[in-house]
Amino acid sequence: MGKGGSRLGAGRPGWRGKTEHCRSLDVRRFAAANMLRTGMWSWQWRDAVTGEEVASIGVIGQTYSIVLSYTAGGEAIRTRVPIVRTDCGFGGSRPWFACPSCSRRVALLFLRSKHFACRHCHRLSYGIQWAFGSYDLVCQFEAADDQTIAAFGAAIAMQGNVRTQTIRTFTRDEMNAILLKLPG
Question: Which terminal Cβ of the chain has fewer Cβ within 10 Å, N or C?
């Protein structure tokens, strides 16, 4: 085979796992739900299409950490996750998880191989998105509903000399549900 050029399937395959294929815990959502204090709570993951609970985890809040209590592969697991805080510029503080494996300050922990850790420890990558055409910038946002993202787009457009376009995207599970509805 000659040098240079490109061929289908050439190069290193995308061997890393993707963050969107793992269950995750977000410290910002825990803070919004007031779960970063002393007490006991339950956290659930729900199917994006049906809304049914697909998994849950017990959370025990302590002074400077939380303890995650869950079952994976028939094994009962308890993991202590330290909570660290950084000062904000205008007062208050921002909470972070300290990764149980490497102590890195992160907002998200991912469940893989029965254990929660940061994406670096699990060697996870984010899905890459490419855009070609007449766009200077393409951003992906997740919002509670369509009205929220429309209001955000309008607020950006009001800054002047900015045009926005909203495109609805689907998760893998949502797209699979759509494809199941096709005839034949």
Answer: C
In a 3-state reduction of DSSP, which class is residue 132? coil
Contacts of 161 (CB under 8 A, 6+ apart): none
Q: Is the pLDDT of residue 104 over 90?
A: yes
What are the CA-CA distances from residue 145 to residues 111, 142, 158, 159 (Å)?
27, 9, 21, 23
Q: With a cut of 70, say whether residue 1 has pLDDT above it.
A: no
- The closest of 179, 175, 172 to 127, measured between CA atoms, is 172
In the structure, what pLDDT confidence band is assigned to residue 11 with cuts at 50, 70 and 90? very low
DSSP string of 1-66, one letter each residue = --SSS--TT-S----SEEGGGSEEEEHHHHHHTT-SSSEEEEEEEE-TTT--EEEEEEEEE-SSEE
Measured in whole angstroms, the distance separating CA 84 from the mean position of its chain's CA atoms is: 20
- The residue ranges of every structural domain in the chain are 19-122, 129-179
Cα(40)–Cα(2) distance, integer angstroms: 63
Report residue 26: phi and psi, to 5°. Answer: -115, 120
- Give the whole-angstrom CA distance, residue 155 versus residue 141: 14
Contact 171, 127 (CB under 8 A): no
